[in-house]
Every structure is written in structure tokens, then in C-alpha cells.
Amino acid sequence: MSEISVIIPCFNGAATLARALDSCLAQPEATRILVVDDASTDASASIVRVYALRDARVRLLQMPGNAGPARARNWAALNTVAPLLAFLDADDEYLPGALAAARAHLDAHPHEAVIRLDVDYAGFPARLTRHPQFAEFAAVLSNTVPSSLVIRRNVLLALGGFPTDELFRRYGGEDGALSWALREIFGQRRLIDAKRVRMHWHTGIHAERFLNIQLGYTEADPVANDATLRASRAWLDNARASVQQLRALQIAPDALNTPTR
């Protein structure tokens, strides 16, 4: 059975971090829970230290300065050797059995690179959830948000991790770029038999902005759209080239067993 490391990037997430951690600790499949404090100015790091004293699976990593969630996730991915990585935002939570289902699927399908979990959208305004197209675009979000992602570590590293282009920090969209690459290069399925991740609404989250635009309540910024689309295409091209180069390598059968001096 494959081990899973859960990675939680956190910037000033003290208000919701305990809920996220509790939901991780309830998952027996989570062999390591790495919280990356992205230069928070609140009590986030202290909360993690308390949890680490209670459960050895919890570990605090600290960024030297605020670098954004993509770099935080990538740093944690380099600080674990678990074959499977799961990502949870500090304001989301896993539902019971989430990681068991993900691990069972990937263990049963060794040629699949990734599996997505279906998302429950808690507390979202009725004007969004009652819209006739809400289910359609909620499914799009479930295929892109990091909290739905369970991926083989070697696949993420082959892609270069989460995109870190500064355009994404400015406008958002790195999650969509990664999802695009996974879909185009490896294919990605989603377990739709049950909701396994809960996303809690609060003002200003990306999901709210995305749904407001897609459901026609606000207009997209054409400059931001064009910039993120170009950056996403460039990142996809680079990711595809990296994977193709890896596939083309010829590794001697005994290369990993050859002693070095």
C-alpha cells in the first residue's frame, strides 16, 4: 500500500488550520502531514507545533519569506519521499475515507498518474448554488483545485511542480495550468461516487471569483485572461517537453545498483 504525504500551504490560516489538520489526522493513510508556513504573521506556526507534539506525522516547514502557495507546495514535495502526494488548502478539509479511496484507486491503477476527489462546496451563496449551471462549473473546479489532487510524486517532479510564473501570482490560474498539463499528458479522472473534500466559502476565494465569472455575475478581465492563457500554454509546452525527454532516456538495467566512487 502506497504511503501518502499531505501538503498544506498556509499563509495566515490560523482561523481554519486546526480543522484542516484534524481532517488529515482522521485519515490513517496520511503517513506524513507537512504544513508549509508561508511567512504567516498570525499563530499558524504555533498551531502546527502544538499538533506536531500530539502526532508525529505532523511536521512544520517554514518559508524564509512569502513566496505563494505554488512554491510552498513544491518545497514540501522536495521534503518528502512518499510515492503519493495529496494537497489540502488550509481552509479546506478532507471528508472521512478521502485518502483511502484515492490510494485504493491509484494502487489498483498503477499506470494512472493522478486521481481527483469530488468537492463539496459548503456555505456558498444560494445565488451560485441554485444557478442552473452551478453543477457544470463546480465539476470544473473539482478537476482543478489543489485540495482535490492526489498525485504520484515522481509525476509532479517530472512536470516541474506547480507553476510558479509571477503572472500566476498576480492573476491566479496556476491550478488550472497544472490541471491542463495533467489532462493533456497523462489524463486525469475524478472519483464521483462521493464527496470527499469540503471547500468552505469565504469572501474573496478563487472559487467564488471563478463562479461569478462563469455564471455571468461579473466580467472577466481580458488582460488577465490573455496573460494567464499564454503563461499556461507556455508551461504546458515546457511540461510536455520535460516528460518527453524523460521518456526518451535509456537507463541501463543495473544503473541504480552500480556503486559510485
Automatic annotation (TrEMBL):
Gene3D superfamilies: Spore Coat Polysaccharide Biosynthesis Protein SpsA, Chain A (3.90.550.10). Pfam families: Glycos_transf_2. Residues 5-115 form the Glycosyltransferase 2-like domain. SUPFAM superfamilies: Nucleotide-diphospho-sugar transferases. The keyword Zinc does not apply. Keywords: Glycosyltransferase, Transferase. GO terms for molecular function: glycosyltransferase activity. InterPro entries: Glyco_trans_2-like, Glycosyltransf_2, Nucleotide-diphossugar_trans. The keyword Zinc does not apply. Belongs to the glycosyltransferase 2 family. This is Glycosyltransferase involved in cell wall biosynthesis. It comes from Paraburkholderia tropica.
